[in-house]
């Protein structure tokens, strides 16, 4: 992507924004899309935005499920989105936690775990992103803090229809 013109990015938290937060969701059987989530992703894709998921996944570090389980769920999300003519450009995840029982995932202040901005900063380095026009949508104060610390706007989603919530974020959503 070097040399590509910068585009705005829609950064999305996963649990509570794209899917219902049912606590450490790691299997497709436990996954349920938030109303309007697939349509919102498709609309931002059509408007030329990058769509990037940034998700704390301490369930990996806590030993509740493996990275392979998480990747399998993300792959299933991608297949389901394709049926709605939508796609996620990238997934960034933070499996670390200060109290993780799995030692390799234990870190006193994980740089990628929101409210730290590591995942967003990595995406900004990896992709041609127009920071000023980008936005992060999260359901927790830690999501909004991570956005602010990365220098992008954060929007707090409190439930409902995600596309309707985002309708004002891109002129082409229609």
Q: What would you say this structure looks like, in words?
A:
- The chain is of the alpha/beta class and 174 residues long.
- It has a single domain, classed as 3-Layer(aba) Sandwich (Rossmann fold).
- It has six helices and five strands, in the order E-H-E-H-H-E-H-E-H-E-H.
- Strands 3-2-1-4-5 form a five-stranded parallel beta sheet.
- 38% of the residues are buried.
- The mean pLDDT is 94.
SSE layout and pairing:
Layout: E1 9-12, H1 37-46, E2 50-56, H2 58-61, H3 67-83, E3 90-94, H4 118-126, E4 135-138, H5 141-150, E5 153-156, H6 162-166
Parallel strand pairs: 1-2, 1-4, 2-3, 4-5
Quickly describe the structure.
By secondary structure, the protein is of the alpha/beta class. It contains six helices and five strands. It starts with 8 loop residues before the first strand and ends in an 8-residue tail after the last helix.
In quaternary terms, these chains amount to: single chain
Number of separate helices = 6
- As for the number of domains, it is 1
Rg estimate, integer Å: 15 Å
Counting helices, strands and paired strands, the structural category is alpha/beta
Q: Strand fraction band?
A: 5-15%
CATH architecture: 3-Layer(aba) Sandwich
Q: What is the overall shape?
A: globular
- Mean pLDDT rating: 94
Could you give the count of β-strands? 5
What's the CATH superfamily, by name? HAD superfamily/HAD-like
